[in-house]
Amino acid sequence: MYRFSSSLINQSLLILCTALLFCKRCYCEETKFMSREERLQLREEARDMFYHAYRAYMENAYPADELMPLSCAGRYKGLTPSRGDIDDSLGNFSLTLIDSLDTLVVLGDLEEFEHAIRLVIKDVSFDNDVIVSVFETNIRVLGGLLSAHVLVEYLQQHADIMLWYGGELLTMAKDLGYRLLPAFNTTTGIPHSRVNLKYGLKSDRLETARETCTACAGSIILEMAALSRLTGEPIFEEKAHKAMDELWKMRNRGSDLMGTVLNVHSGDWVRKDSGVGAGIDSYYEYCLKAYILLGDDQYLNRFNRHYNAVMKYISQGPMLLDVHMHRPHTNSRNYMDALLAFWPGLQVLKGDLKPAVETHEMLYQVMQRHKFIPEAFTTDFQVHWGNHPLRPEFLESTYFLYTATNDPYYLEVGKTVLKSLQKYTRVPCGYAAVNDVHTGKQEDRMDSFVLAETFKYLYLLFADPEDLILNLEEFLFTTEGHLLPLTLASHTNLSRTLIDNEIDDSEFARTCPNSKKLFPASVRKPLKNMVDGVCPRRLTKRKLTATEFSASNLNHLRLIKDMGINIIALNDGRVQLLHTFSSARSTSDAEEGLLFMQEMVELSKLQAQQTESSPQAVTFAIKDGTGNKKTITVQAGPSHFGVSLKNNQKVTSQTILADPFRACTDLKFADKLKGKIVIVERGDCMFVNKARQIQNAGAVGGIIVDNTPDSSNTITPLFSMSGDGTDDIKIPVVFLFTQDASKLLLALSTDTKLEVTISELKNDSEFWPSNEEESVFQKLKVSVQEFLNKHTGIVFTDTVVVGDFRANIGIDKIQISYKQNKDSDIYVPEATTNLQWSQIRKGLIKSILHSETQELYVPISILRIYYQTLSGASAEDLRKFDVTIQTTWLLQQLNIENRRKKDDDLVEVGETPELAKEAKLEQLKAILESTLQYEVDNAASPTDDLVIHGEDKTKPEVIITADRLDGTEQKSDVKTKKIADEL
Known about the structure:
Elements: H1 18-21, H2 36-60, E1 66-68, E2 73-75, H3 95-106, H4 110-123, E3 131-133, H5 134-158, H6 168-180, E4 194-196, H7 204-207, E5 211-213, H8 214-218, H9 221-231, H10 235-249, E6 261-263, E7 269-271, E8 273-274, H11 281-294, H12 297-314, E9 315-316, E10 319-320, E11 323-324, E12 335-337, H13 343-350, H14 353-370, E13 376-378, E14 383-385, H15 393-405, H16 409-424, E15 426-427, E16 430-431, E17 433-436, E18 441-443, H17 449-462, E19 475-477, E20 483-485, H18 520-524, H19 554-562, E21 565-569, E22 575-579, H20 587-609, E23 616-623, E24 629-636, E25 650-657, E26 677-681, H21 687-696, E27 701-705, E28 733-736, H22 738-750, E29 755-760, H23 772-791, E30 798-802, E31 805-809, E32 813-818, H24 835-850, E33 855-859, H25 860-870, H26 875-880, H27 883-898, H28 913-937, E34 948-950, E35 957-966, E36 971-980
Parallel strand pairs: 25-26, 26-27, 27-28
Antiparallel strand pairs: 1-2, 3-4, 5-6, 6-7, 8-11, 9-10, 12-13, 13-14, 15-16, 17-18, 19-20, 21-22, 23-24, 23-29, 25-29, 30-31, 31-32, 32-33, 34-35, 35-36
Active site: 136, 281, 375, 393
Cofactor: Ca(2+)
Binding site for Ca(2+): 479
């Protein structure tokens, strides 16, 4: 399309991409050739589609702004129920007819074109008390009037028709232009987003409005400049240039990126997301097209700067992901929107065909997967927002790519889009937007751009140049698909002041970056199954598959990090996997990350399809304080594999612990498990893998106990354990939270032949009494700690409680607080008298008790001195410098001092085995939690929300976990730290 004629505009305006655009055989033998007969058939079908919609509008809606295709009625501003901001494009000025005028000329229907112009002149008025979008009114109505005016004069000169026309449309355009001018009365000169066509900004709603989008303010220059150059009144172009100049000043000077929403008075950015889609798209488009249409070198310089920034920060392979404009290496969202589909077309105009082919191919695959390109879709190509209002941007880029390459592949793309429109959106009264691509549900909506752009580009794609009465080489398409003549470059006396610090006049500033021998098929081939099936490039050997992945495996976490996959913890305990190309270690790793994400999606779908199982129950007997046995029934989570017991079904047998306890590897003493209900611990591998291990050993049932400390069904929702799609488990397997499992393990420790029954949970089951008050308090305690961490600026990495004292461990200090606990006797008595240390302890306690908040901050450096000097610890312990151990010791010392009967009563107490055991356990807990926190702080996982969960004190090998991975159904550990430490 853009094979410019130097006779029309000054040679300095040309971007030297003509060699690319004349490349007529850039396709390979794999591409199916489309015969001229089929092309003509599709061209005529596209023509019929336009007229089906156009006539439905004219017969059922005109003079309304839009047609409601399901209601078969017109949509009027203020009369039809409001749709919110969507209705800002309406103004009771026959929007669809004005927007469609030049499409009639493209189709060659000059008779209807003339009739439509007479209707517009006769019926349309802009003297309406309505609030409209400045951006939408400019590109749709002002652009439509100007394009129609230019085409009438073109036809008068070339076809000697419509000689009655005397510039009426231009007069209407000037009237509309003056009605839009009040919007530019801002401190910065950047226009308000809305204006009243009759009263300007004279309303409280408009005067107090401050925000507009970058595209809204930066997509006015073409129409306003054309209006000035056609009428000879420079005010419109001056206002538009001023707005563009101010926007350029607002760019981030380090990245050359723009935000998406700004304050028109202060010039501050309101939203700092930067991308090429919604809110910013046509600003970039108009930077380049303003250079082409107006001949201003500053706009070429700006576009090149912006384009380089986009390709450096936002382009991630074929995908275009929003980033923070001030932190361009950080993605601001994990989805893309449909409006970015214009970008490959703009890249064709720029001459950068290779990335244009890649992004277009990605979009086409998304379109094929969902029948249409959803309004927003995620980085793993799932639907984020399922609406599709029959947008034209993808067809626009398809048309430009075909014009540049003559590759028949793009004719097949257009054919696919055409057939989808016909099959899913055609209704008796026009074409209806798709409300949800999942269901195909239609929406009572047909925007004016469907006629102005969608059907126009579809027709042009299948038409030959000789089929058209216009020479499109003489025109430039606006963002609304309206035609403005390139001859406008010579129609101005307006002088522009150079505001850019530097104009790029280097050798490559006006040339295309690509080779002349680009074959689009060779670029598309590696992306053949990017969205469905396999990765863009064939991988010789997979490093990790989704079915192999274990979130508790540190090596697996490192591998997915290398693939560019981040784990984000959600508030409800689940996690989200986010894949970004830019975060991957290499291109091949990024490609494997795509495949990994696709596999995870399929696993999630499989889990979602599994039927819900009934809650299960575990019943056993436990001795009370008097030695009598009491039957306990606890609620157990079901599984999506194995046998789900219902009604009176049950399994009763003796229980035994698996060895190893997590049962992820071959079991020791497997012969002892035969006929038993085997207890295993959560972690290290999938639930179903544990079930296979114990089933192969002959178990008749399985109980998987949680590894999260203090978890309970009173504070954690019950969940069903997921399988992997293989139905090979024939025994019942259930899940117990920690508090319930502790009762079972306690009973087993006192009775090695303990019998347990697994059955369906009954409504009248007797449960072990839960401490609801304690669980609520625990929630409150966690919430308060999170609040303090957020608002005090002090981040505590661990908490230690001993007796009456509690310590929150920070980076460089510990916070000690006091609360009397009469029932607590956890402290280590001292065996010798140290009067000096006793006085120090008294001073610390006095400082805590006399404080308003009853707390004291002790620097870790001072704590270390106390510990090294007074603890009597071994040389090996002193070398560890473990702040949790030191804190535990200090709290024990404070408890000793606080519980002395008299200040001068130094009692020597012998160390009992029980007290020694308790002290050892507290020290063990401190060591483990501190070690884990160090691992969390230095983890490969990017999340900041890791939470210490607990340990198992029943075994020499102690396991602590942090956080949880809870996918659609399955839960496992994000990080596991094993420590075998003898104290």
